[in-house]
Specification:
alpha+beta, 7-stranded mixed sheet, PBP_dimer, about 25% strand, 28 strands, 5-stranded antiparallel sheet, elongated
């Protein structure tokens, strides 16, 4: 080998060695770098890889929390169901797999051949939903088949877990519970108010390629929603609803509402109304079948109307053809001119009432089918709406408890103070008097008897002694005109006269519950403070929240808002309210062996003189230590004489007789509670023939001054108790406006600045 060749080989060896060392150096550096990155940032990059693989992930649905009653009974839960999913891409890989899958799906599920073929038509799809809400039994049977030799070729079929909201008791407590819409969105009731607590967070399973070429997975577990333990007692709720159903079947009414509360802490034990629906199927229009609902619709009006809600301009084209003598290729031209004119049409929005109970099945369905989607929701909303918190009415004589309690607390009156009832009061000189329920007059009555016989005259004198400032102060203390803060959606406020608008007439009528409007929950919460020692608690329907393991997350302790009256005044009020039942207008509410207190109300609805009333009774037992407060409202009972029906007190009696044994409230008084007064009814509150009214009333003059139960006829003279309880919109037997009066909201805000307008001629009894 020549010297040149040897030098060349030596140089090549040197270069190769250098190159080798460089490569080794780079590899060592890279290795060091990889190790460093893995140690320092390995977790971060691993998570990034997983996140980048979410295209191959599967959601794990959370389970919405349960709603339980106070004793642990399930009111609402979520049932696990399954959706059948087909993967056409995989199914169509082989004809053998397609045939096996098709045969299995058709055999085990309610799927036709055409449906199957339709769902696998998209050859690029990995996700075709075929069936929903499948029970586990069907899924398991199919999966067991696929594990056999016969089903080994089935491919491209999987199941997704879906939770479906379930209300195992049907319509029971529907307004307290509410329902859920698509996507686990609570609507109304506890479902709506506590939606964020009941909902959880979906989990995910991520699948990605492993380093060895296989498929690994990582799962983030779902976080289930919290369980809501309510204050509701399912048995009390059922007793209330059963009695409402029985009354509606046997007598009937436009509406009934009942609230049962623990007066010592504001817990709602039961709440129901006569309009019900099944939260499992809230869109079912059969819930409207026996209802009377009002919907809004547009009506076209002929001619111009400035009061129309909208003015529609319609262009009408009129085509006029005229011949011209202009030259053209054929010597003449016929030219068409189009003249546009504009026609205006007025469209007015009107509220139309539909009484579905009087329609045949065909008429009902035809009417429903003719509704727009907005009208259908408007009609269904009437059923979904919780009457006990969302509707307002004039409370009537039940309001008198607040008037007397406030006056006593402020030292305006004392126990034993007497008032002369001569049958009426002239509150504004020169204007018509406001009559008492008993036109001949009750004579001298003390505070206790004034409440027992529901004497409007005495109440007006008490309010006059209070004055607007003190009277309105206690309206606010008892939370009239404001929301109670109950943990349910849809609460309304009602309206009241504020101090600036409590003129002599308004002050007088407000004293016995006329001119103010309240919701049932406002009256119930305020009344509880009257009988529990003066403690106003926020009414509430939830006791505590639990996690998915049953651990307490949060206790919803009772919230004491304020002191309304002293215990001393509260004790007086309890004895006064007991006298209402045992000596006065509330006799029909009494139960043998029990001490019961309460107050009746008979509110006449607008327009005055139409014979339509809201009957109510708010009461409690035992008087010595109240354990339950029950408020019953019956709107327009289907009887000939609504004002004299005593519907509120009678239904209170029926419900309470069923509740007391369940509550283990034992009898404390062995005396029978029996009405011992006259059966002769007083004349109508709107009877202008005062001579006739006075003649009828004269037959009871002796009873008006007697201390026996006989003089309870001053408010109610029939065994039905309420004919003389309350007058006008509030109480037909107390004092009332004539039918010419109208309610007018001067402010448009409903903030208490509303006034009466019209002929303020009182013709109450």
């Amino acid at each position: 080998m020549s010297k040149r060749s040897k030098l060349f080989l030596k140089g090549m060896r040197r270069k190769t060695k250098i190159a080798y060392l460089l490569v080794v150096g780079v590899l060592v550096a890279l290795t060091i770098r990889v190790v460093y990155i893995n140690v320092a940032n390995g977790k971060e990059y691993s998570e990034a890889v997983v996140l980048q693989m979410d295209y191959n992930s599967t959601d794990i649905p959370y389970e919405r929390g349960e709603i339980l009653d106070r004793n642990g009974n399930v009111l609402a839960n979520s049932e696990k169901t399954y959706s059948l999913i087909l993967e056409p891409v995989n199914i169509l890989i082989t004809e053998k797999g397609k045939a096996a899958t098709r045969a299995a799906v058709l055999e085990y599920f309610d799927v036709s051949g055409d449906d199957f073929d339709k769902h696998i038509a998209n050859e690029d799809s990995y996700y075709e939903v075929v069936l929903k809400d499948l029970p586990y039994t069907k899924v398991k049977a199919f999966e067991d088949y696929c594990k056999t030799d016969e089903g080994a070729d089935v491919i491209g079929v999987r199941f997704e877990t879906v939770y479906k909201r379930n209300y195992p008791n049907g319509s029971l407590a529907c307004h307290l519970l509410g329902y859920t819409a698509s996507g686990n969105v609570g609507q109304g009731g506890i479902e709506g108010y506590y939606n964020d607590y009941l909902n959880g967070v979906d989990g995910k399973t991520y699948r990605y390629m492993s380093g060895s070429g296989g498929v690994d997975s990582e799962t983030v577990a779902a976080q289930n929603g919290e369980t809501v333990v309510s204050t509701i007692d399912m048995n009390i709720q059922k007793i209330i609803e059963d009695n409402i159903t029985e009354y509606m079947q046997n007598t009937g009414a436009k509406q009934i509402g009942i609230i049962a509360m623990d007066p010592n802490n504001g817990e709602i034990l039961g709440m129901a109304s006569s309009r019900t629906y099944d939260p499992n199927d809230p869109m079912n229009t059969q819930a409207l079948r026996n209802m009377t609902v009002t919907v809004t619709q547009e009506v076209e009006i002929e001619g111009a109307d400035e009061n129309a809600d909208s003015l529609i301009s319609v262009e009408s084209a009129k085509k006029n053809t005229t011949a011209t003598t202009e030259s053209s290729e054929d010597g003449t031209t016929t030219e068409s001119s189009t003249e546009a004119t504009t026609e205006q049409k007025n469209v007015k929005t009107e509220e139309v009432e539909y009484d579905f109970s009087k329609m045949s099945d065909e008429e009902f369905q035809s009417t429903i089918d003719g509704f727009t989607s907005d009208q259908l929701y408007e009609a269904l909303n009437y059923v979904w709406q919780n009457y006990c918190i969302s509707d307002v009415f004039e409370p009537g004589s039940t309001y008198k408890a607040f008037t007397i309690a406030g006056a006593m607390e402020d030292g305006v009156i004392s126990d034993g103070d007497e008032f002369l009832c001569d049958g009426s009061q002239v509150v504004v000189e020169g204007e018509s008097p406001i009559y008492c329920s008993y036109r001949a007059g009750h004579g001298m009555v003390d505070v206790k008897r004034a409440l027992a016989v529901s004497c409007n005259d005495a109440l007006m004198q008490i309010a006059d002694k209070e004055g607007p400032e003190t009277f309105d102060k206690y309206q606010m203390i008892f939370n009239i005109g404001s929301k109670t803060g109950i943990d349910l959606e849809g609460e309304t406020t009602g309206i009241k006269y504020d101090v600036e608008n409590l003129n002599p007439t308004e002050l007088a009528t407000s004293s016995f519950g006329q001119g103010v409007t309240t919701s049932m929950i406002q009256m119930a919460a305020g009344f509880c403070s009257v009988i529990n020692g003066g403690n106003y608690y926020v009414p509430h329907v939830v006791k505590r929240l639990l996690d998915s393991d049953g651990n307490v997350v949060e206790n919803m302790d009772p919230v004491l808002v304020r002191k309304t009256i002293s215990k001393e005044v509260s004790d007086y009020m309890k004895t006064y309210l007991q006298a209402v039942v045992e000596e006065g207008t509330g006799y029909a509410a009494g139960i043998e062996g029990y001490t019961i207190g309460g107050k009746t109300g008979t509110a006449e609805k607008l327009p005055r003189g139409n014979g339509k009333y809201v009957l109510s009774f708010i009461g409690f037992t035992p008087v010595e230590n109240p354990q339950i407060m029950l408020y019953v409202v019956v709107d327009e009972p289907h009887v000939e004489d609504q004002s004299g029906s005593g519907a509120g007190a009678k239904l209170f009696n029926q419900v309470m007789q069923d509740l007391l044994p369940y509550l283990n409230v034992y009898s404390t008084n062995g005396d029978d509670v029996a009405y011992d007064g006259t059966e002769e009814p007083l004349s109508s509150a709107f009877d202008t023939d005062t001579e006739t009214a006075d003649t009828e009333a004269a037959t009871e003059d002796a009873a008006a001054e007697d201390t026996s139960a006989e003089d309870t006829s001053a408010e109610d003279t029939s065994t039905d108790d309420t004919s003389a309880d309350d007058t006008s919109y509030d109480d037909t037997a107390d004092d009332s406006y004539t039918a010419d009066d109208t309610w007018e909201d001067d402010s448009g805000t409903g903030d208490g600045t509303d006034t009466w307008s019209g002929d303020e001629d009182y013709s109450g009894e």
